[in-house]
Design a protein that fits this description.
- This protein has 10 helices and 5 strands; from the N terminus they run αβαβααααβαβααβα.
- It is of the alpha/beta class.
Amino acid sequence: MSKPLSSLPPSVEIRLAGWARIQEGLLPAPGKKFRPTITLSREFGCEGYPLAECLQGLMEKTYGEPWHILDKSLIERVAQDEGISLRLLRNLGDMTRLLESLGLHSADHVTHDAAFEKVAKHLLEMAGVGNAIIVGRGGAILCHDLKNCFHFRLEASLQWRVHSIAERLCLPENEARELVRTNSRIREKFINDCLGANIADLKYYDAVFNNERHSVEAIAQAILAYVKQAWPGKLSGTGSTPEGGRTGFPSPK
């Protein structure tokens, strides 16, 4: 039996406790530390969420602090507080945007642009807190100017991505191929329409990894090593955090 796309990440309910802790972190606090955030972009079919989970474990073990994964499912749940429907969020970038451009929507309809603006606001807040791993949603582009952020991307051949999706969702290869191609087009259009950018442009990333040639574990180790080496430079370049907080990050254990 095939599985829905929503089955790839763990249930959002399991991760709401982590979101609550992030919300607490958004409150101004004396002596607040300056902590890093990592964004992960990926071609559809690459192992973005498995990488995020592996990286989360490594960062927590290395630095002794909790890290939180922020992906589409969690953002959708949180954004409901802004009155955005799940159906709209799940279809950002699809044909309904064309209908909106023609004025074919009800007076109380929330447009794609307005919905994404609210989603982007949440993402930027969470990225600013730090100790976050943002999967997708144009995080590398949205957070490009935040001094505490590192940006990485996963790519792989079409055939490898088709096989990965077929295996993870228990789909026949022809169905998996169509799913990969369709969702790849939707993602590219979504980023181009909402942010006016090419998500594959190298200028947005610290490094790009070939998921076909390197395991999730190896990529996570490489990202950890990069962040450990580069973070002191970011600290010295910023001086102090917004809100006057002190800079700092726990030393590796």
